[in-house]
Write a structure and sequence with these properties.
The complex is a heterodimer of chains A (about 550) and B (about 425).
Chain A lengths: L1 H18 L11 E7 L2 E8 L6 E11 L4 E8 L11 E2 L1 E4 L2 E8 L3 E11 L2 E11 L9 H26 L13 H39 L5 E9 L2 E9 L16 E2 L7 E7 L4 E5 L2 E2 L4 E5 L6 E11 L4 E10 L14 E4 L28 E3 L5 E5 L5 E3 L4 E8 L17 E6 L5 E4 L7 H12 L10 H17 L2 H11 L12 E6 L5 E11 L2 E12 L4
Parallel strand pairs in A: 22-28
Antiparallel strand pairs in A: 1-2, 2-3, 3-7, 4-5, 4-8, 6-7, 8-9, 10-11, 11-16, 12-17, 13-14, 13-17, 14-19, 15-16, 17-18, 20-21, 21-23, 23-26, 24-25, 24-27, 27-28
Chain B lengths: L21 H5 L7 H26 L8 H26 L10 E3 L3 E3 L1 H27 L8 H26 L9 H29 L11 H21 L5 H19 L29 H15 L5 H29 L35 H31 L3
Antiparallel strand pairs in B: 1-2
Helix pairs in contact in B: 2-3, 2-5, 2-6, 2-8, 3-4, 4-5, 5-6, 6-7, 6-8, 7-8, 7-9, 7-10, 7-11, 8-9, 9-10, 10-11
The chains are: A alpha+beta (about 550), B mainly alpha (about 425).
Chain lengths: ~550, ~425
């Protein structure tokens, strides 16, 4: 019985997993950025609209620096800096906190440029934002009833008017209505009713067609993929096939797949997480076979069903996460990595069962790891600590900076090296897989997206024209292949040089921090990846998140 | 001598003693009820508010519930709604009100004229559209086109208010039909009502055109769809108001009112600065962009007037009349609008304050190859065009026939 329940819950979770929208992340639409800009350090939260055109809510927390004003404006990749409207000033709502809205009119890759002014100078921060419609709403009952009442009043009044127009309205002043006018009035009202019913039917059909148009052309549809695992010569391979057939009419809103660009030097970042316990994890970087097919050798992961998240970024800065599930039927025995930066980890399952999500239970504080300031042993014997944790239970929607420190075997601070050009990477997945995010020390967004948009802002052309797709793809393949061959130090140098330098300060000591706001209540697992002595180390933490009481 | 406006006589029937205080009869209102002026003013507020709003969206982009053009439209709705609503309540609760015998009783207790009923309906419809539009924006995104389901309710509301002004003036004007006017005041009142009806009709024509303007822009002046749209809308409306009006050249005057009303905001607003507040900004403008130059309706309108005068004393079936009027209207319109459309689109002489063909939406690329050229899709082969124009002629015929019938009804409106 318990097994059946478990399978049921698991199936439901998978159903949710398939049906959810997948932008740059899954189930985590907001963008959070922590940046050093000149003497200012700010934490920026952008809550993008879920319908386009719509408004993004921007909140800036000033962590360092004397800020007087902050101006914001939307800059679209398609039209660049020259095509952006004038700035709007954010309102200072509290000490060190500014808020405002920014209108996003077009679907696609966009950004919000923040200009910070104050005695410490004028600095600019760019937040990449995916401007896409994701909401499917119905009318709230209250609004529906109110509108229906007004509509009925209008119909009755119009029928009355038409009836009167054909009868009493033509009577000379003072003239009494002849008996035949009653019939005339009724005929008028009948005709009025028929015409109104026809008009309203046509109008409702039009409304339905508009709603259908929104669903077909405007509503974001994630790029589908079909993943499979094949095994040959004791080597399992993950094959990912991108499926553009699912775009439907949304196709025209998308760039071609040939315009996928590398993020941290990799065309695709794949995260595999075994369900239900989220105990096996892999971060892989498949090779591109052609524009539709990607392949990666699998590390020796235990058999089971895996959630698969694949992050890609296009030339215009549009970043999205593709989702699928894949079954590994037997662990590879002779595993070789496709990419030297691939990493994986098998650990204990989450302390809380997936079925317990959202329900009160006794073991909130009995998770295996991730207690306040809990520490985990890493593969090389060093220890990773979650420091400055806000509490044993975190709150939804609250921007946190998650800090992790690494100590060596003797308990002294361990020097970390850049991993894929960054101080570290983190992945966060909700126990049922419906929330996924790939984090960096600067925020929740893709570095390649930022790079594309910052470059585009520097470009003064008003309309962007994509280059030849095949030539572009070839040049990217050559670049990625060359980068793969480079020694680690040189590779990091190339990757770091490509990033918009002014906003990133690489704090390569023994600590990494990631800004993030948990979108929904539940149990989450956090994988923190750093590099030490040339080795990628992964620390795993669990945490519980509850809805804010405020 | 029978007064042309019996309502203004105290007895309630035909009388000689004027009800209106002498001061009011001789003031600027000439004894015409204030609410008639108010609803015509409301009609003007609505169309200029609408045109301002369109130009706002072409030039600035972002607006709020209480942006200046919206406020102007609301003023129109509120003025029409309050004056008409007050009139209805006044007639309902004042049993001895001398205007009661010339009003319509509805729902067993209320009294009002047709004009006031249309205005109140329009005001309620405009009110209804606001929460619906707000929900629409939250559900499907801010709509950037003129015609959407919630905007249609607003548009019907606006047109109902304007139709209220038309019907209100029409009912008073119709009481002069066949009347022999002896005193100067009545003559002046008659002329004023003729004019008010002409103005109110012209203002409603502007909104009607505004709603379908996306189908009648200069870029499509060489496509048959342009003429089909024209054929559906204009003969119907122009012949209805033309038949009902007591002016000598009603369609010409109403067309002229339409043209001037359309042109004034497009001439004045571009004098004021406006910068886009929404992106993408592909056309970095600094001043308001004019809307579109209206159709040269006065020319075919004048021909319609002449034909209507010609056939007014001849026994001719309305079906035959509709056929003649439709063919002449469409033929003259084609002869005028085909070259004029090309002039507006292609000629450098149209790129000035008067014709404002250089007016360009901030979000459109100003270097677009077809900015001053007919886009290939908007051009047809001669055969295709003639086929399409044939359909337009059929549409114009039915439109004209319905217009004549509607005009017959309009002539009979008294209350």
């Amino acid at each position: 019985m318990k097994l059946i329940q478990r399978v049921g819950v698991y199936s439901l979770a998978l159903l949710l997993f398939f049906s959810m929208t997948a932008l740059a992340h899954v189930g985590s639409p907001g963008v959070l950025i922590q940046k050093q800009a000149g003497k200012y350090q700010v934490l920026v939260s952008v809550n993008p609209p879920d319908v386009i055109p719509g408004t993004a809510k921007v909140t800036v927390f000033v962590e360092q620096g004397r800020v007087k004003t902050i101006d914001a404006r939307p800059i679209y990749f398609s039209s660049g800096d020259e095509g952006a409207p004038t700035h709007d000033e954010l309102k200072a709502v509290a000490a060190g906190r500014f808020e405002g809205i920014v209108w996003l009119m077009s679907s696609g890759s966009s950004s919000i440029e923040l200009v910070i002014n104050g005695p410490d100078g004028r600095e600019t921060v760019v937040a990449p934002v995916m401007s896409v419609a994701t909401a499917t709403r119905t009318m709230p009952a209250g609004t529906g009833i109110g509108l229906l009442a007004l509509g009925l009043l209008l119909v009755v009044l119009m029928v009355t008017i038409v009836g009167a127009s054909m009868s009493d309205g033509t009577l000379k002043p003072g003239q009494a209505a002849p008996a035949t006018f009653r019939r005339k009035r009724l005929i008028g009202m009948g005709i009025g009713t028929v015409v109104l019913v026809l008009v309203l039917t046509g109008w409702r059909t039009w409304w339905n067609a508009s709603a259908e148009h929104y669903r077909s052309y405007n509503l974001y549809k994630p790029l589908a993929m079909q993943s499979s695992v094949t095994s040959r010569d004791n080597q399992s391979r993950l094959l990912i096939r991108l499926d553009t057939a699912t775009y439907g009419r949304y196709r025209r809103s998308r760039p071609k797949l040939s315009f996928i660009v590398p993020d941290h030097g990799k065309l695709m970042h794949v995260f595999l997480v075994r369900t239900p316990g989220l105990d096996a994890f892999a971060h892989l970087h498949p090779d591109r076979l052609d524009s539709l097919n990607y392949q990666s050798k699998l590390p020796p992961l235990p058999k089971g069903q895996y959630l698969l998240y694949a992050d890609i970024v296009y030339r215009n800065g549009f970043a999205e996460t593709l989702t699928d599930t894949v079954t590994i039927s037997a662990p590879a025995t002779a595993a070789k990595a496709t990419d030297p930066d691939d990493s994986w980890l098998v650990t204990e399952p989450m302390g809380v069962q997936a079925s317990a999500v959202g329900m009160p239970h006794l073991d909130d504080d009995m998770v295996l790891c991730g207690k306040p300031s809990a520490s985990v042993k890493l593969e090389d014997g060093s220890t990773m600590l979650w420091t400055d944790r806000a509490g044993s239970v975190l709150e939804t929607g609250k921007p946190y900076v998650l800090r992790f420190a690494v100590a060596d075997e003797k308990g002294k601070s361990a020097k970390l090296e850049p991993y894929l050009g960054m101080g570290g990477h983190a992945a966060i997945v909700r126990s049922d897989g419906t929330v996924y995010v790939h984090l960096h020390p600067v925020g929740t967004y893709s570095m390649a997206a930022e790079e594309s948009l910052v470059d585009r802002i520097a470009d003064t052309t008003r309309v962007f024209h994509f280059p030849d797709a095949n030539r572009f793809r070839d040049s990217i393949d050559t670049y990625v292949a060359r980068l793969k061959q480079l020694p680690e130090a040189e590779k990091n140098k190339v990757l770091m040089a490509a990033m918009p330098a002014m906003n990133h300060t690489m704090k390569v000591n023994n600590m990494v921090e990631f800004p993030y706001a948990f979108p929904r209540a539940g149990h989450y697992r956090v994988w923190v990846q750093v590099r030490r002595n040339g080795r990628v180390l992964t620390g795993v933490f669990d945490t519980q998140v509850k809805d804010s009481l405020l | 001598m029978q007064s042309a406006l019996p309502s203004f006589d105290q007895s309630g029937s035909v009388g000689t003693k004027s009800l209106i205080p002498s001061a009011r009869v001789t003031d600027w209102r000439l004894g015409i009820p204030t609410y008639i002026y108010a609803v015509v003013f409301a009609s003007l507020c609505i169309i200029w508010g609408l045109l301002w709003d369109i130009m706002w969206h072409m030039s600035i982009g972002r607006d709020g519930l209480f942006s200046a053009p919206h406020v102007l439209i609301y003023v129109g709705a509120v003025v029409a709604g309050i004056f008409s609503g007050f009139k209805i309540l006044q007639l309902t609760f004042q049993k001895q009100n001398p205007m009661r015998p010339e009003s319509i009783r509805f729902w067993g207790i209320f009294y009002g004229s047709l004009g006031t009923l249309f205005c109140v309906w329009g005001a309620i419809a405009m009110l209804t559209s606001a929460p619906f539009d707000d929900w629409w924006h939250n559900t499907y995104g801010l709509d950037v086109q003129i015609l959407t389901p919630p905007h249609t309710i607003l548009a019907f509301g606006m047109m109902a208010v304007q139709l209220g002004a038309v019907i209100g003036t029409l009912a008073l004007q119709n009481r002069f039909r066949d009347a022999v006017l002896t005193n100067e005041l009545e003559k002046r009142r008659y002329r004023r009502l003729q004019l008010l009806f002409g103005v109110a009709s012209g203002l409603l024509l502007c909104v009607l055109f505004g709603l379908f303007s996306e189908k009648m822009d200069r870029e499509s002046a060489h496509h048959s769809s342009y003429y089909t749209s024209v054929a559906i809308i204009f003969p119907l409306y122009l012949l209805a108001v033309g038949r009902a009006s007591l002016l000598r050249y009603p369609i010409t005057i109403i067309s002229a009112v339409y043209m001037v009303t359309m042109l004034i905001p497009s001439w004045i607003l571009p004098l004021f600065p406006a910068t886009p507040r929404l992106g993408p900004v592909l056309n970095p403008i600094t001043h308001y962009q004019g809307f579109i130059f209206p159709l040269l309706l006065v020319v075919p309108g004048f021909c319609l007037d002449k034909l209507m005068q010609h056939f007014s004393h001849k026994k001719i079936n309305d079906w035959a009349l509709a056929a003649i009027l439709a063919v002449v209207f469409m033929g003259v319109l084609l002869a005028v609008q085909w070259p004029f459309g090309a002039f507006l689109l292609e000629s450098p002489y149209a790129r000035n304050w008067f014709f404002f063909s250089d007016s360009w939406y901030y979000g459109s690329d100003p270097t677009w190859a077809y900015r001053y050229k007919f886009y290939p899709e908007n051009l047809q082969s001669t055969t295709e065009f003639l086929q399409g124009f044939g359909i337009a002629l059929v549409c114009a015929f039915f439109s004209a026939r319905v217009g004549l019938a509607w005009g017959n009804w309009m002539k009979r409106v008294q209350r």
